[in-house]
Amino acid sequence: MSPRSSSRLLCLCLLSVLLAACGNRPRGGDVSRITTPEKGAVTLRQGFDDAPADWEFVEGTWQRETRGGNGVLAQTATERVFPVALWKKARFSDMGISVRFKPISGWIDASGGIVFRARDGRNYYVVRANSLEDNFRLYTVIDGDRDQIASTKIDAPALGQWHTLRVVAVGSRLQAYLDDKLLIDHQDETFQTGWVGLWTKADAVTDFDDLVVKGIPTKREGFQ
Length: 224
Hints:
Layout: H1 3-24, E1 42-46, E2 55-57, E3 61-67, E4 70-76, E5 84-105, E6 111-120, E7 123-130, E8 135-142, E9 145-153, E10 163-170, E11 173-178, E12 181-187, E13 194-199, E14 205-217
Antiparallel strand pairs: 1-14, 2-5, 3-4, 4-14, 5-10, 5-13, 5-14, 6-7, 6-13, 7-8, 8-9, 10-11, 11-12
């Protein structure tokens, strides 16, 4: 191979890497922010001031706690790898989800995550932030096996402080935010509809509050 050909091949490889990186982490105004369609959408809110209703606690130790007079859903230390709680109020297709989370402690992991389009407790998307790592990631979980499909570098969210996670999923387009910053923009068609929920990992102790879901339910029963 000639020096010119080698140089051209190297440039093409670098360009491919940069394009792939831009596909995971939006830069400036390069990526449009998607929104949940208004027609047919419903909004559900869960503040955890009362006992959680319509929840399935698949793995882990989830319980309602009161912190400073405010109700939260707390996941305490567990031996389970992926503690998952599913809100079985409705299944959604296109949706926007936000939740506040406070990572409190953990030696192995100190994370909070949003589960969406879950078929069950072993098959779903999850986006998570981890106070022990400088990354923000989107995964598929299939039959309990986790596979990273998008990631970007961030400053690790501080322990003991409230942060906000947000996900918008419209068709195959998946966008994820941390503290109002759009950090991941990705295309994937593994899951089209399902439950929403919350997630941690390993020994993470995490509080969750102010869960809001706006989306298109797959069935209209129970909604006005």
